[in-house]
Protein 1
Amino acid sequence: MRTRVLCFVFLLFLLSSNIALVKSTSWSQVAQFSDLGDYQSDYFNCSHVLWRINWDYTPDPLNPTAAALLVTVFRQNVTMSITSAGNYGNVTTNGTSDVLEQGTFYLTIHIANLDHYTVVVEQ
């Protein structure tokens, strides 16, 4: 019963606020980063509460099992990371990570043994 009440209160909060947690059927690109090596991005703004990071990489053919991509999201003026996305190895070479935060952010990208990578931020 208590869980139902909390869910109802949360739903009322969402409906009464300007925040929408509905997944978009039409995402717009905020930023894209490709083949920059280890990198720290400039600041970018996400005005939606729900946004995502799409990542894709091609392992170095000489050492595919040691391929790694790590994308970490930081909020402006905060040293603690919000979330990380990426993978190690060549089993899964692409994916999407949702972020439930609104504001101004930057990414750090760390790579190892990659032939190519692309990271796209969408909201």
Note: The first strand starts at residue 29 and ends at 34.
Protein 2
Amino acid sequence: LAALWAGWRSDVPVLVEIHGAASSALDSYTARCAAAVVADSFALRADLLARGVAEAAISVVHPAIDLPRQAAGPWPSYLSCRGAPLIACVAPFDQREGLQLLLAAMAPLLRVHPALRLLLAGAGRTPAHLTAAAALYGEAVVFTGQPDRDSLAAIYAAADIVIFPALPARTLAAARKPLDAIAHGALVLASDTSAHRELIDHGHNGLLFEAGSVESLVEAVLALLADPSCMQPLRERARSFAKVERSWEAAARSYGPVY
């Protein structure tokens, strides 16, 4: 409100930047009064339109990311088992992230690939229901805790597939963790939520499966593991996508027409 008042007094246009969600009436009022609004996802743009913000005032500038450096130093001990198929999930231990669904998929996956291992990397205390579900698979499921940047880069480099199994939900936030994985050149398999669809071009820079479906997830993982030759082209296109379309230079160019 202070910025709007200062802009009105000085006859200077005010730009409002919104990430995630315009959650309050004050957010909506501010966006409607601004000369221009920048949203970080098309889902948020649609929400702002529904709140009465003028279509011509809204621009979408997707989140940008630095290309990460390679991991320095030795890999964590939980990555020492080479040769066996390795899948990973980097997500908070939140019910909406679909980790229970991913654990349910392990039973049919292990029947086909008995040596398969799953790494679950997330912050905070592991919920009891996840610990109990993982215990059914013994050493096939490993909780890594919150990895530092080097350990995270090592996970992305070592994993055959990095999975983001978020459940169907109405979300306005951009998909930032999958973007980080893509920037590392990981092969990303993600549920087809709106946030993931804005980031992943199915079959080009990653793959999508039906959100909430264990069967669709299992089918996608098995198809990838059955055809390893398709993995490296997907990784290369993922990193190229991050470098070209999600760079800070690309984001800066998007602001030119706004200003």
Note: The chain has a mean pLDDT of 91.
